[in-house]
Design goal:
With 89 residues, the chain is of the alpha+beta class. It has helices at 15-22, 52-62, and strands at residues 2-7, 30-35, 42-50, 66-67, 70-71, 73-76. It has a single domain (2-78), classed as Alpha-Beta Plaits (2-Layer Sandwich), CATH 3.30.70. It has two helices and six strands, in the order βαββαβββ.
Amino acid sequence: MKKIFVGGLPQDATEASVTELFSDYGKVRSIKLVTDVFSGRCRGFGFIEMEGHEARAAIDALDGRIKNNSTLKVRFEDTSKKKGRGRRR
């Protein structure tokens, strides 16, 4: 299972619309769009989990595609930048 970052989403994006976009390349196992706390609208990015070969196909096909006057940024999530998880010693 691979986690994909997707940025450049329109504010009116929903889990259903993003799932439909990615489902052409395989089964979307999970999806989490980051939303504004007050308005509930998409903040323009989210995370999707797919199988490895399906994720690579989606990245190859969708990275740089223009959707609603915005360029999508689709890539594997960089797990090396996660800091601050846990107790400070």
